[in-house]
């Protein structure tokens, strides 16, 4: 007997609410699925509550373009991206509707785990808003992440949507400020963005690395253990980034990578010199 659509969706929702970050999730975070909504596609149907008691619906986006950003309290890229989005909101907020959609926790830990009820997920969304002093809308996806899953779930993707519900721009990571600023400039002026995607990877991840120790402090030591198992280079850079506390957090990852490069070159120099 074939499983029903309801049973399949229930299992997918349960799998979505993972408790341990692993290699499979890391790989999935790096690429969009082939059937993921892309520029030119209509946004999937959704009807979400916002933490201030409003609604965010695909059928009632309002008269402005919408910047929809996904994120969570335990996502280091979200930590890097929200200040970017706040700056952009200060510049474009009168011409573009900004909405941050709270998702599953990207790195659940011992102290701040994966929500298992909508009440807890809503509470996490409030904490995310308060943590960053966000002054635009924060919506909450349902407990099974139906909207997030429909978009090929990425921890901190961003979409620019026109008032009719058609996606005009997609960013893999919302901390790619230059690309997002360019797309917003076009959309705010009534133009389809010249570049409709941002696939930047190395830069956004390096900007996020310095935030990883803060996520560990907030969510618990399990987060660091999981990252060491799933992505040792990122875990190592996160550790090294703590040597550069005088630097802005977004620059610590690059500094850690530079230090690691110096160490590797020095060690290789010694090895070659002794042979």
Write the layout of secondary structure elements.
Elements lengths: L4 H12 L6 H8 L16 E4 L4 E3 L8 E6 L4 H17 L4 E6 L15 H15 L4 E4 L5 H5 L7 E4 L5 E5 L5 H12 L8 E2 L3 H8 L2 H8 L1 H10 L1 H10 L7 H25 L2
Parallel strand pairs: 3-4, 4-5, 7-8
Antiparallel strand pairs: 1-2, 1-5, 3-6, 6-7
Helix pairs in contact: 3-6, 3-7, 7-11, 8-9, 9-10, 10-11
Describe, in plain words, how this protein is organized in 3D.
The structure is a single chain. The chain folds into 2 domains: 5-199, Glutaredoxin, CATH 3.40.30.10; 206-273, no CATH class. The chain is α/β, with parallel strands linked by helices and 275 residues long. The protein has an 8-stranded mixed β-sheet. The longest helix has 25 residues, at 249-273. Helix content is 47%, strand content 12%. The protein starts with a helix and ends with a helix. Helix 3 runs parallel beside helix 6, helix 3 crosses helix 7 and helix 10 packs across helix 11 (249-273). The radius of gyration is 20 Å and the shape is globular. The model has no long low-confidence stretch (mean pLDDT 94).
């Amino acid at each position: 007997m074939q499983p029903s659509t309801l049973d399949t969706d229930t299992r997918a929702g349960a799998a979505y609410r993972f408790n341990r970050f692993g290699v499979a999730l890391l790989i999935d975070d790096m690429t969009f699925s082939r059937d993921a909504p892309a520029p030119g596609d209509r946004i999937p149907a959704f009807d979400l509550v916002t933490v201030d008691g409003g609604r965010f619906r695909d059928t009632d986006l309002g008269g402005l373009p919408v910047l929809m950003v996904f994120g969570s309290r335990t996502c280091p890229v979200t930590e890097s991206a929200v200040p970017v989005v706040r700056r952009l909101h200060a510049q474009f907020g009168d011409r573009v509707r900004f909405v941050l959609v709270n998702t599953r926790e990207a790195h659940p830990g011992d102290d701040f785990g994966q929500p298992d009820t909508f009440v807890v997920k809503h509470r996490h969304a409030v904490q995310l808003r308060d943590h960053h002093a966000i002054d635009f809308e924060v919506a909450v996806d349902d407990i099974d992440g139906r909207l997030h899953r429909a978009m090929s779930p990425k921890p901190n993707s961003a979409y620019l949507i026109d008032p009719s519900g058609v996606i005009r721009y997609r960013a893999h990571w919302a901390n790619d400020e230059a690309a997002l600023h360019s797309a917003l400039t076009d959309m705010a002026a009534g133009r389809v963005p010249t570049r409709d995607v941002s696939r930047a990877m190395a830069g956004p991840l390096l900007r996020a690395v310095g935030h990883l120790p803060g996520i560990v402090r907030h969510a618990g030591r399990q987060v660091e253990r999981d990252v060491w198992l799933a992505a040792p280079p990122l875990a190592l850079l996160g550790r090294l980034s703590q040597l550069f506390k005088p630097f802005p957090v977004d620059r610590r990852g690059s500094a850690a990578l530079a230090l690691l490069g110096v160490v590797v070159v020095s060690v290789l120099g010694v090895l070659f010199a002794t042979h």
